[in-house]
Amino acid sequence: MNPATPLAGLEWARLLLLPAIGFLAGLAAQWFLQERKSRDELQRALAAERAQALRQLWELTSLPPELTRLGAQSAVPAALRERIDRAILAWYTEQAGALYLSWPATQALFRLLDRLRDAACRKPELESSVSSLRTRLKHDCGIYSSREMRRSLARPRPAPWAAETEDDGY
User: Is the dihedral of CA 6, 8, 13, 18 positive or negative?
Assistant: First the structure.
């Protein structure tokens, strides 16, 4: 074959370009896999600390007796909202809880803080915000699947006895 023919030019392009494209694709794939591996290793290393931090947040978002005793549409007292807000904010900033939250859980936490800072906050609204955050935490911990998060969870009927207070010594 005469090297001056157009087919020879295509042959050279095939011999040079295809290996170069393959090399670049392999390099990109290797970089991506290494990034993914590094992220997975970091998540595994932090798993126990993260679980402990999320348990602390779970405890902070447990509804206190003074809230559960309120009537169905009652306004949440400012002192109670402030106490919960300060505890959550201390967990988020001072105890570095922010490091362990996923993006959606952070958004749910911020919605809860907004709800707590709303002077017109009512009990069902606060309960809903707390429930949304806790549902997201369950998903992040692998307890709930994405499908289960979208389903409605049946609530038990209210207890027939009075809610215990912190002074009851249980």
Answer: positive
Q: Which residue, among 42, 61, 59, has the nearest Cα to 100 in the 3D structure? A: 42
Q: What whole-number distance in Å separates Cα of residue 117 and Cα of residue 161?
A: 31
pLDDT digits (tens, 9 = 90+) for 62-85: 999 999 889 889 999 999 999 999
Average the pLDDT over 147-162 and give the result: 81
Q: What is the mean pLDDT of residues 102-124?
A: 96
Cα–chain center distance at 98: 10
β-pair partners for 4? none
Helices (H), the chain: 6-60, 65-68, 78-93, 103-116, 123-140, 146-149
Integer angstrom CA distances of residue 162 from 76, 122, 126, 145: 19, 20, 21, 34
Rounded to an integer, what distance in angstroms lies between the CA atom of residue 117 and that of residue 162? 28
pTM for this model (two decimals): 0.69
Q: Report the alpha-carbon distance of residue 60 to residue 63 in Å, rounded.
A: 8
Spatial distance between the Cα atoms of 106 and 119, rounded to a whole number of angstroms = 22
| φ, ψ of residue 52 in degrees (nearest 5) | -65, -45
In whole angstroms, give the CA distance from residue 169 to residue 68. 18
Q: Is the pLDDT of residue 168 over 50?
A: no
